Request: fold
Amino acid sequence: DAGQPDEAVRAFQRVLAIGPDSGRLHGDLASVLWRAGRWNEAVDEYRRALVGAPEDPDLRLLLARALAGAGRIEEAASEMERVLILAPAHSEARALKSALFEAEPID
Reply:
């Protein structure tokens, strides 16, 4: 149903109004926004989630994917560098970094 992502977003927003400091809820809301193609909103929510877990490479990977979806390739590549510093063997991060490198314009 096309309305389901919007309903889920509203439900998360209601819960976050009660407990705005829940990093996990911000991450879950970001994932719903990401699946709905609402990239910039997802970026904002992933950043809020990272406040409580700044060293979480998986959460940073999700942020990088949202940045890439928003067309913010340089920011996404920078975030991927941070992921690989935190988790050098992270295979999904390495694959996304390669894809981002291919998407970057060559000067």
The helical segments are 4-18, 23-35, 39-50, 57-69, 73-86, 91-103. The two ends are 43 Å apart (CA to CA). The mean pLDDT is 82. DSSP finds six helices and no strands in the chain.
